[in-house]
Each structure stands twice: as C-alpha cells, then as structure tokens.
Write a sequence for this structure.
C-alpha cells in the first residue's frame, strides 16, 4: 500500500510518526478570545495587535497555555523507557533551582517525574545548548562512560564548543532583531553581517550580558557596516513622523528587549488608564508622560545615513552620534503616535527612569545614563533569566516572556484581588535573577546552572496521575518542537549529507544555525514553514502545521537524504548502514544516528520483518524515512 503524498510505503513504524493532518501539533500559546476593545484600536501595533492583549486578567480567565497537553501528546508517542534511568527520583541538591522546586514539590505533595535516562539526556542537552542532535559516536561514548560526573562534564564540553556560539548567536540575533530590512529600517546585508559578527564575537568571548546591553545602548560611530553594535540602536528608526517617534521606538525596544516590558509601546501612545486596566496592573496607572521621560534618554541621539556611492541614493550605511542641542519637545501633531501636547506648563521633557526615578548625572551622556539605570535594575536580570529559562524549560516563569507586569512580581507584597502574582514561581525567578547578578551576568554560568539542575533533567514521561497544576511547578520536562534550523541541521548531521550556503560577506556556511538571519537561501521556504519568524512582524513560534508534516515526508531535502549515496567518508548514512552489515547492525545504526538511541525490542522485530519484505535497500530507505518523521526526531523531549 502506498502512503498518500509520498512514494514511501507504509510500515508499522509509522505509528509513532507525526501525521499532522488532524492537528496533532499543539500551540503553546493559544490567542485569548477576549481583547480590550479600546486597546485593540491602537493601530500602531499592526500585526502584533493581538499579541499585546495576551496578558493580565484576560489571560488568567482563559486556559492560554497548553504545555501539559503537549507533554502528554508527545510522551504518549515515545516508546516505553527501554533503558535504565539515571537514579530514579531526584535527591537533595545544592543547585539554586532544585532548592526552590524541591520545596515547592514537598509543600504541594507533588511527586516529580524520574530523571531522564542517559540517551535522552545527551540528546536533550545537546540540542538545547548547541542546536543539533549529538553524533552517534558521542552518544555511545557518553552512555558507556561510568563516571558519575559525566553529565556535568558533557555540559562543560558543549558550552565550550563552537556549536554553542552558533546556537546562541541565532538566539540573540532573534532577540536583537538583526535583519537586512524591516518595515521601517534598512541595514543592508553589510550592516546585518556586521551586527551578526558582533553578536558572534560576544558569544565567543562569553561577554557579560550587562556589557552587551551597555554596548548596544551607548553605541556611537560613523559606519554601521564596520561597527556592528551600531545596528541595534538603528533598529529604533521610524519613518513618517517627527524625531520623537524615533526616540519613542528606541525606548520601546529598550524596555521590551532588556526589561521584558512590552507595554511601554502602549504607554507611549496614551495613559494606561482605560487601555491597560485588565492587562497590566503597572500599566493601568502608568502615564504617557512617564513614557516620554523614558524616551527622553534618547533625545540627544542622532541617526544619519551616508551613501556608499555619492552618485546613488542607495545603498547607504548608518552613523550614530550625539547632538546635545536636541531635546524631547511636546510639540507634535503628526506622525505614528497621537499628538504630543504640553503638560501644564511643561513643553520639554527631561529624562527620568520610570521604574526608579533615576536621572542622568551631571554631565553624563543620556544613553550612558539609561544603560546604567537599565543594567542596575533587578528587572534587567529577571527579564534575561526569563528569556533564557524559556529556551530550556519550554515555559517561561512569565508568559508571554516580554509581557512583565512590574506591579505583580514581589511574592512578599502580592497584589490585591482579582490580580495575582504574575510569575508561576516568583521566588525561584528572583533567586535565579540574583544568582545571575552574583555571577556577573555570565550567560554560560546561567545556562550551566539550569542544565545541571535535577529539575531540568526530569523525564517528559510521568508515571503517576498528571495534573495540569503541576505544570507551573515544572514537575516533568515539557517537550518542545525544535527550531527550523535545529531540524535542518539534525537532518544533515544524522544522514551525513551536509548542506552548504554561500552568503555574501560571510562565505560558505555549513549549517542553517550559522545563517545571519532569515536570509534568502536555497531552503528558505522549507525553513519558513517551521515558523522561524522574520525578526520584524513575526516572532519565532513552535506551533506545528500540516505543511510541516508534508515537508518532512516529501521534500527533496529530506527524501534525497534517505538514499544510499557517496563513498568513504562522504558516504551517506544509508550507504554506510547497508554496506556489509547484518540487519541488526543496520537497524541499530539508523536508530542511534537519527534518534540518539537504540531501538526497543518491539521496534527491532518490526524493522527486521520489514527488511525481509522486498528489496533490502528500499526497505532500509523506508525505515530511515520513517525515523526522520518520528516525534522522537523533531521534538526535543
């Protein structure tokens, strides 16, 4: 029998594959059905209009997050744990994360999942830290290693690898919205490349996160093609309005990127009252004038463009300088935001940090002052921890991760009903943020703390009765669908058939994770189906779709890698697997290379029977194709 949409024959192994036509993939964030009507009229948000309404009381009244359903669905499609797990239930731990979560579990009489086994652990942590699955040889060596400290050693190895630089350069490229062109800004490929290179160098050096933020906020220079960090502040450029619109956008970018506070965008259009009443306890009392004060830190920032060729309007590069003669005036009637009118007798706004009242010191550069205020704000550390935690634990402490409500974060001073504390684990969030500060904003140290915790190393399977309330206690690991680039690079690695891309100014790249942005390369359309975003109007998402399933089942990128081709070191996985091997060796080789584990006894018998039913090579191709389409492959569990 032929499987519809493909020339691969159906084999029993397909029971564990991802057939998505019935909507198997679940969205981690389901849009709220209720929008604040007045707030929804803020046209400035454009395509993100609904995004800014997914918080506050409306979110609390809806089952907005479905991570437990995802975990249950994925775990139900995984084979039974065929390998001894590493130590059963977690024991006591000195890790700051474990200290908090172990107490939470005890206080709520919750039994956490077992620790995950070695096969699953090496796969999980390798994907999370480096953006690709481990090689078969590394899996075999790790599992065979009897050193009780081998997990920590593996983590240090991965943190020191160039693959770590690739993965986290992509992450921060997303976060800093580095791309050639947005709806407002054109950086050109040279500007994008310079920023990408700057981010990579920061990751290679493990530059402290507060220093990264400071260098982006205070950047000055004459050529954005040569000085990469200029390109972040350039991202605040806005067309069609007065200069205040640009300074506003710089303030918005600062609040959302470094403080996780997306509602600053609202406040710079209008007072929060009547607009944010059900969305943010802080926002409902925030005033537009406070937004002006935040934006005024950028009021001496001047952006200018210089033509590369004096006889042509394009391309151009940006320069960023300070103009001490400019100020934030309340004197506009046009542009992207409502008119700025005097407040009483005040016609010029001076900088003041809305969350502390801090102001520039005597003679201090305004942007140096905002960098000082932001990086000294505990919320700076809290937001960074929340963003990073989400990447490893799937669900952030605060969701959406850039919708913090500053008035609902203190567990010792909770808000009055009907408001509740916003983080699901506020004390752990604060402790981890302080830990980040104590470690001098070391990103690798933060990641090491997360992945060495017993809490991170729990299985995604749960043997007892799972209750949705356990989700916020992180009593099991929540699987996530891999990024587009992670799926791409894991396919090329596992099949031993690399894909290269030539990017002007960067040369030949050997992995999708090395791409500087959503640059148009040979497989851009394929990557886009996995929702990698565009670093402008579309954020990266982890939802699934029928088109994703069809691409995994039918696209030439996948299909060609299920063939036997090449010789020697360039031989494809399939060629290696069918050459001078027994059926047992062939099946084991495919499983360990693709799924980072060996087959269960049931899978072995199914595969052996299939290999004897027809042409061995064709049936081996069918098996490899099925493995590349299994939940085990494209979910990190």
């Amino acid at each position: 029998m032929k499987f519809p949409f493909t020339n691969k024959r159906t084999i029993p192994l397909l029971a564990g594959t991802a057939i998505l036509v019935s909507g198997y993939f679940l969205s981690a964030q389901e849009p709220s059905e209720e929008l604040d009507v007045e707030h929804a009229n803020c046209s400035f948000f454009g395509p993100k209009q609904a995004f800014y309404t997914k918080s506050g009381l409306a979110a609390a009244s809806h089952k907005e997050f479905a991570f437990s359903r995802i975990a249950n669905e994925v775990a139900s499609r995984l084979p039974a744990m065929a390998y001894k797990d590493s130590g059963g239930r977690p024991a006591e731990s000195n890790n700051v994360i474990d200290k908090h979560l172990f107490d939470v579990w005890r206080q709520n009489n919750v039994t956490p999942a077992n620790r995950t086994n070695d096969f699953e652990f090496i796969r999980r942590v390798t994907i999370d830290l480096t953006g690709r699955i481990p090689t078969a040889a590394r899996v075999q060596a790790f599992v065979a290693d009897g050193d009780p400290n081998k997990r920590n050693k593996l983590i240090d190895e991965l943190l020191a690898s160039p693959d770590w630089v690739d993965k986290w350069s992509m992450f921060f490229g997303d976060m800093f919205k580095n791309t050639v062109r947005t709806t407002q800004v054109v950086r050109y490929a040279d500007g994008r490349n310079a920023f990408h290179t700057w981010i990579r160098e920061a990751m290679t050096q493990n530059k402290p996160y507060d220093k990264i933020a400071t260098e982006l906020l205070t950047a000055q220079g004459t050529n954005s093609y040569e000085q990469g960090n200029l390109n972040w502040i350039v991202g605040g450029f806005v067309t069609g309005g007065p200069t205040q619109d640009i300074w506003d956008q710089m303030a918005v970018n600062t609040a959302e990127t470094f403080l996780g506070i997306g509602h600053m965008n609202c406040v710079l259009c209008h007072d929060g009252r009547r607009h944010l009443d059900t969305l943010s306890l802080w926002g409902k009392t925030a005033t537009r004038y406070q937004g002006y004060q935040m934006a005024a830190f950028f009021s001496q920032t001047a952006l200018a463009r210089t033509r590369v060729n004096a006889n042509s309007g394009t391309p151009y590069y940006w320069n960023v300088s300070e103009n001490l003669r400019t100020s934030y005036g309340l004197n506009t009637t046009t542009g992207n935001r409502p008119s700025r009118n005097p407040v009483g007798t005040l016609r010029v706004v001076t900088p003041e940090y809305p969350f502390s009242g801090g102001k520039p010191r005597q003679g201090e550069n305004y942007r140096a002052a905002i960098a000082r205020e932001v990086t000294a704000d505990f919320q700076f550390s809290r937001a960074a921890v929340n963003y990073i935690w989400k990447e490893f634990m799937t669900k952030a402490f605060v969701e959406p991760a850039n919708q913090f409500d500053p008035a609902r974060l203190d567990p010792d001073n909770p808000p009055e009903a009907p408001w509740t504390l916003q983080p699901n684990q506020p004390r752990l969030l604060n402790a981890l943020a302080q830990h980040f500060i104590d470690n001098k904003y070391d990103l690798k140290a933060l990641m090491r703390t997360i992945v060495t915790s017993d809490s991170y190393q729990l299985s995604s399977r749960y043997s007892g009765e799972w209750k949705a309330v356990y989700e916020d206690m992180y009593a099991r690991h929540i699987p996530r669908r891999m990024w587009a680039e992670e799926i791409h690079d894991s396919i090329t690695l596992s099949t031993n058939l690399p894909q290269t891309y030539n990017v002007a100014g960067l040369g030949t790249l050997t992995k999708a994770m090395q791409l500087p942005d959503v640059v148009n390369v040979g497989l851009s359309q394929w990557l886009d189906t996995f929702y990698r975003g565009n670093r402008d109007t579309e954020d990266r998402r982890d939802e699934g779709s029928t088109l994703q399933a069809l691409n995994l089942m039918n696209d030439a990128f996948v299909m060609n890698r299920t063939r036997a081709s090449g010789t020697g070191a360039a031989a494809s996985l399939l060629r290696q697997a069918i050459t001078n091997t027994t059926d047992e060796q062939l099946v084991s080789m495919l499983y360990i290379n693709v799924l980072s584990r060996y087959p269960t006894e049931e899978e072995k018998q199914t595969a052996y029977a299939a290999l004897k039913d027809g042409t061995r090579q064709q049936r081996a191709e069918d098996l490899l194709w099925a493995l590349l389409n299994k939940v085990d492959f494209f979910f990190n569990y």
